[in-house]
Structure formats: structure tokens, C-alpha cells
Specification:
The chain is an alpha/beta fold. 35% of the residues lie in helices and 16% in strands. The protein contains 9 helices and 12 strands. The strands form 4 sheets. It has a 6-stranded parallel β-sheet with strand order 2-1-3-4-5-10, sandwiched between helices.
């Protein structure tokens, strides 16, 4: 049986991945940030040894903070990923690197394919792109980059949870309606990573791990309220200009999913379908006073 290593295992996706792998009976080593600093090459080599599949969920995730700490963000999201790739090459392991839509410029008007030119608009995106390049350079035959976006789940702070929490203290909420993307349930992505890691013949390279369909943050907030039994008209549309941030965000983060067919796998489900399923989980139901 293949041994799996999950780095960044204390985060939202890492915890879901542990659940998915455990339910499937996989042998799993799960290391959170305290247990493994991926910027330490010797520690990384020791951690990877003996594993056949490594899924890197460890990352600098403070998008705005990266604008004034780009070197620190790149040390984790770029150099740290290179350490993992080199260790995987030495150990003969496959590496699944979780990346982001932020490596793309977000200036298209249709789904962005996996081979589209990159062009990050912020420091965080540049750091993540460095990690992608490290994987593809060091592991051309056994390295997988899985880009995701608009991630939400039960085990960490995220937009959907924030909207539901605010329902208890605000009558209305103004939410951005000029950024387009694909809300993606972390549990869905965890299942897809497990499927990809177990598919020995899957071609290496870039895959887009986002839900099917598209919406805006405003559309997502309204859908979450409706599915939670709240009045969606409490959500009001506004523009990005109303919420200035240190880091620019791509305006259009809708990704294409064509390469999953090459791996013999179906893309992720539609975002509305997954949101409805996710909101039945106890952690989300508790936010609105509902009970299983």
C-alpha cells in the first residue's frame, strides 16, 4: 500500500484530506506547520522519505501580508516547494502541489485553460508561481500542480462561514459583485487530490481543481443564505472599489477543467451542488442555529 504524506495538515484542506484518506484506508502521515517547516530542506528530506505520494497543503496564505513580505512568502510558497520537489525526486515519490488561480492575470472573459499564460497581479501569486515552476522543473514526470480558488470548508476561516456568522449581527451585508470565480468546497478538492494521487497513469502537469460553473462573491453569499434558510435579499451588491485591499485581486478567476479527462477523472461538481451538501455539515449548520 502506498504511504501518503500530507504537509500543512492543520489547515482547512489538510484536515479534509486527512479525513478522506483515512476513510479510504490509506496509510497517512499528517504533519502540520509545527511538525514540519518546509523551508528546512533537511527536515523535508527526512519527512518525505518512505512515502510514495506527497500532497503539499503547506503555504503562506496571507495574500495582503505578502505585499510587504514577499521574500518571506516566497520562502514558503516557492523555495519550500522546491525543497519538497527535490526530496520527492530523491525518494521516488509523486508530489501534488496545491496552487492558486492567483498565478493567472484574471483578464479573460471565458474559462482559463490549464496551459494559459501566467501573470500574477500580486506578490502572493508570484510566490505561488515560483512553487509551480519548481514542481514542473524538478519533477517533469511525477509532479502535479492543482490550482484551486475560492476555497471554503468546515475547518478554517473562509468566506461562506463569515457570511453566515455575520447574519446574526447584521441586517444587511454589502458584497462584491464584480469578481467572478468558482466557489470550491475543500472536501471536494480533498477527494479529487486523493483520486489524482491514486491514478498512477495520470499525466504530470497542471490541473484545475475548482468547482464547475461560476458566480460572484455576491452570488455566493446569496446562495449560502438561501440554502441556510436566510433571506438572500439581505445581501446587497457592491464593487471592489468599496473594499480597497493592499493586494490586487484577479477580476475573473473562472478556470477550465479539460485536463482531468487525460487522467481518467471527472472534474469537480457544480459549485451550487457542493455548497448545498457542505451546508448540511454540522459545523455550518451550527452557524445559523440549525441542528442535524
Amino acid at each position: 500500500m502506498t504511504a501518503w504524506l500530507v504537509t500543512g495538515a492543520g489547515g482547512m484542506l489538510g484536515r479534509d484530506l486527512q479525513d478522506v484518506l483515512g476513510a479510504a484506508g490509506e496509510r497517512v502521515t499528517a504533519l502540520d506547520r509545527a511538525a514540519l517547516d518546509i523551508t528546512d530542506p533537511q527536515a523535508v528530506r527526512a519527512a518525505v522519505r518512505g512515502h510514495g505520494v506527497v500532497v503539499n497543503c503547506a503555504a503562506w496564505t496571507d495574500v495582503d501580508g505578502a505585499e510587504t513580505a514577499e521574500a518571506a512568502a516566497t520562502a514558503v510558497n516557492g523555495t519550500g516547494v522546491r525543497h519538497l520537489a527535490l526530496a520527492c525526486r530523491e525518494a521516488g515519490a509523486r508530489l501534488l502541489q496545491v496552487s492558486t488561480d492567483y498565478v493567472l492575470p484574471g483578464d479573460t472573459d471565458g474559462p482559463c485553460p490549464e496551459d494559459a499564460p501566467t501573470g500574477p497581479v500580486n506578490a502572493y501569486g508570484r510566490a505561488k508561481l515560483a512553487g509551480e515552476r519548481a514542481v514542473l522543473d524538478v519533477l517533469p514526470d511525477t509532479g502535479y500542480v492543482v490550482r484551486t480558488a475560492w476555497l471554503y470548508g468546515e475547518h478554517g476561516p473562509n468566506f461562506v462561514a463569515t457570511m453566515l456568522k455575520l447574519a446574526a449581527v447584521r441586517d444587511t451585508l454589502d458584497v462584491v459583485d464584480d469578481q467572478h470565480g468558482q466557489p470550491t468546497w475543500s472536501h471536494d478538492l480533498a477527494r479529487q487530490l486523493h483520486a489524482l494521487g491514486g491514478q498512477a497513469g495520470a499525466p504530470a502537469g497542471i490541473y484545475h481543481g475548482t468547482a464547475a460553473g461560476r458566480t460572484t462573491w455576491y452570488g455566493l453569499a446569496r446562495a449560502a443564505y438561501r440554502l441556510a434558510g436566510l433571506d438572500p435579499d439581505r445581501i446587497r451588491p457592491t464593487t471592489s472599489a468599496a473594499f480597497p485591499r493592499p493586494a490586487a485581486r484577479p477580476a475573473y478567476s473562472v478556470l477550465g477543467h479539460d485536463r482531468w479527462a487525460l487522467a481518467g477523472l471527472a472534474p469537480l461538481p457544480a459549485w451550487e451542488t457542493s455548497l448545498a451538501e457542505a451546508l448540511q455539515r454540522p459545523a455550518f449548520r451550527a452557524l445559523t442555529g440549525a441542528h442535524p
